[in-house]
Amino acid sequence: MYNAWALMKLLKPQWLVPFAMVASIAIVIGFQILNFEPLNTPADTPIISSKLIYIVKSDDLSTQILDENSAVLVEYPKGEETFVSTLLTVVNRDRTKRNIDKSSPLVLQEKDDGRIGVFDPASQEEIDLMAFGEDNIIIFRDILAQ
Question: Residue ranges of the domains in the chain?
Answer without folding.
Answer: 4-34, 47-145
